[in-house]
Amino acid sequence: MPFVPVLRSEWIKIRALRPLVGALAAMVLATAVFSALAGLDAADDPEYDPLFSAFLGVNFGQIAAIAFGATAFSSEFQGGALRVSLAAVPDRSRWFAAKALAVGGPALLVGLLTGIVSLLVGKAVLDVEDSGPTWSAGLRGAVGCGVYLALMALLAAGLTAVLRSGVATMSILIPFLLIVSFVVGDVSGGVADFLPDRAGQAVLHETPDGSLGPWSGLAMTGAWAAAALLAGARSVRRRDA
């Protein structure tokens, strides 16, 4: 089967699953709401970063992105759905590529929307005290936010293809992002700068203080996502459906 019809069929699957649509909506809502709440008293922080204050809610929005990527792939490992998919598309590499693109495309589009909404909300809150980010920095942050959320969704998708469980993936990634990454960052020096969340969020800081710059940080997160997807593709090719 040609690639385009395969991609279209995978997109239809994602659009038909309400939890996936809900996860995309939650990505926008959680990021914007928590960014607005954080911005209300951000200027009182001695380490105040006007750009990151406008996008602070991405720490919550990324959970929705992970849930989207994990759920999209875990649905294939329930009730023999993967056997049906591979019966229609025997080329497992082609099927996996279409599935990954069907996850990454919507995640990127919604991520960019999330970045724009968060920027507008953040500036509206922060500019009340003339403490908001500049438009040039804000636009960089909005684009970076979209790319970062898409990469986190793909990271979750690849890990789910390896573990064959969305619950296992979220049980690993969410505690890691919310707890472990901060603990490691406090004791590891510059090593934590290369973790997927810390690296990717460098683009959301006006002046990143880690080892990586805004775009090199995103590239590092991209490398993590690519490694997870390659491992997931290898697992799909070699294991029984």
Plain-language structure description:
The chain is mainly α and 241 residues long. The protein has helices at 3-16, 18-39, 50-54, 58-74, 81-88, 92-126, 135-163, 166-187, 196-200, 214-238.
Compile the SSE list and pairings.
Elements: H1 3-16, H2 18-39, H3 50-54, H4 58-74, H5 81-88, H6 92-126, H7 135-163, H8 166-187, H9 196-200, H10 214-238
Helix pairs in contact: 1-6, 2-4, 2-6, 4-6, 4-7, 4-8, 6-7, 6-10, 7-8, 7-10
Question: Which key phrases capture this entry?
Answer:
76% helix; 241 residues
Average of the residue pLDDT scores: 88
What is the first-to-last residue Cα distance? Answer: 19 Å
How many beta-strand elements? 0
Global morphology: elongated
Q: Note the run of SSEs as H and E.
A: HHHHHHHHHH
| Gyration radius, in Å | 18 Å
Q: How many helix segments?
A: 10
Helicity range of the residues?
over 70%
Q: Would you identify the regions where 5 or more consecutive residues have pLDDT less than 50?
A: none
Structural class: mainly alpha
